[in-house]
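quick one, two chains, predict together pls
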Amino acid sequence: MMKNYCSSIIAIFRRMDPAYDSLFSALYLTVPPLLAGFYSLYSLKPFSIDFVLLAAFMFLGIQTFSSYKDKLTYISVFLLLVALFQFIVNIFIAHPTVIIVCVFLIVLPILAVDKIRSACLLALTQLALFLNGSGGWYDALNGIIEVVVMGIMVISCMMLFEYSFSKTRMRAHLLYLLELLADAFNIMIFPDKKTAETYLVNKHLLAIPLNYRADFLVEHLFSSKQHIFLHRLFTQLTKANRVIVNEDYYFQKNIAYRNRAYLAYFQCRKLFREITFLTVYLNNEAEIQKLLPNTKALMSNINGSFKIIYKAIRTQESIEATLSDTVTNQWLVDCEKLKKLCTATLDKEILEFIYGIKCLITDIRKFEEILNNQGDSTP
Amino acid sequence: MSSLEKLATKNWQMSFCISVAFCVAIFFDYVSNIAFGYWIPMTVAIILSAVSQGQGAIIRNALARVSGTFFGVTLGFLYANIFMTSSYLWMYSLPFIWFIGYYFYFITNNYIIYATMIALFVPILDAISDNAFLLEYGLQSTYFTRLGFTIIGAFIAISAIYIIHRNSFSAQPMMKAHTENIFKMQAEIIRLISKCFFDAEFSDKDLLKTIESHIFSITLIENIYLNIGYELDQNEDKELFYQCLFRFIEKLLSCSRKLLCIINHDHYSGAISNSDELKQVFAKLADKYNNIDEYFAGKTDNSTGKISAILEKINPKDKFAPEYLFIETAHEMSLLLDNMAYEVYNKCNTS
């Protein structure tokens, strides 16, 4: 009973955040301020609101960078500016004109530089909070010490998160990608909406309320479900690309995992390209069935393959052949016969479909090889 | 003036505008001399932090910030007056509320949630640090002061971008530059794919780099499109153009994927036509995408017709060769561009 409730709750969260991106982002934004709060409480140091928010703003800022160099540059610029503003505001608290002139002269050239503009704007938010303070030399020095402690805390949290969650994040992205590939495949081959939707893992993608996301906004411009799913896959590929390919990892275990996940990710990219050829299937279903009677059996076999590959990545186990040799070989033999018989009358779309399926068979087999060659180290 | 000089000038204008807005907000804070006056410069800085996404994002953030502040101070008022006055233990629920709030913000990307969280937490943290709950969360300090200051801050931010230099904040030039980059990268992809297919010269690195740049620009224009509707000079024609553009890009991406799939599995086998003629066709197609603005301005050519002629000449027996699908996809891409250029040119001439 309890287990059922738990799995229902997990399913709801998975529907909203399939690759756990939002979960990790929210966690990144919660832990450093929480640590800052505990530090303030247990160091018996006067509690400072700026100290807590500083960590949150800093983490929000570094979200957009993937390399350590960029993240550290951002943190350094941000902390330097915050310390400077802290000092100016606290020293000249009784002379607002001096503060205004100093801030204007410092901020004007910094905001003109693209790379550090966002750090400067967040530092300005902090500056506004300092205006609420009482001022003086003690507060100025105290604030600068807080900034340094906070910097060390954020960098430590960044390393800690990389160490603890990177592998989970990479795997979640890979699994979601595979789910979407299976969903896109189902959407391409099932003619009626009901049958297609019973197979879909991500049914919610067709209707998500109350969001303000660019990917959903653009998807609403497309008329067919096929294109919506292809676009969704494209968006997920770009996100997975960031986590698996572009992101800098410092710890050896994450680098090793990334190197394994990389191969599986590129194989997914290949499968995505092949699924594009299948968009024409439903328009020519009857003719394809007539020409290649084994197509339906092959389709359900491929559908099963996606599930097996998904399970292999999830459980980190190696797999046996996912495609039935009998069905696949029979279908390929039918294709060869077709090639000799009636290519003159074949429509371009049918040729596209046949080519797509052939490539899909080849790449699913390659995927099996990749997963099996890695043995216990399956991504 | 070169585009780099233009960009530098634009950056300085943008910087001047933000600096002035922020300093005016600090001035208001000192002049008003009311508690929590820091809320005005804070609002200005938070609203203008969307500057890299353009004018539309700033306006949207300003509107969302006002409504988010309303929800935030209401929730904060209720939270502080119902729970925190009875037992300090309720304070331990704050990190959980913070986590849930930001979790939903990251899921929905709805800025109202972000603004709600800021408006909810800053006063609570202020209250904890000053031990002054009722002062921080009385009606005076929530609805009349913080909400009022948010409206003033939003007004300063929007006035600054409207009065000082509204053009430097517009996302339209950014949209145009990245759209141009998409087509330039598309041309480069076609060139590299053709090289790989016909000459079996495959530079994995170059192709990957180009594809990444292509994808990056597409993601970027999608994000710009999210807020461009809020821009001051946005109209229905522009909206229709963007819708058309995204549908066009999606079709183009489908074609690129097909070509990439073919080069992953096959190379030119010599079954169809001679390779020099086909190479020329692809070079022309790449050229077309590289100079797409000329076609949008009314230029036409017969390259689509030439590809059709090659396709017609193909022996039906050779249709199973990968070359056939390769040329068919090129034909589809050329036709797509012709149709898009025709639509853009006619639309420009009629409106």
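The CA atoms of residues 64 and 291 of chain A lie 51 Å apart.
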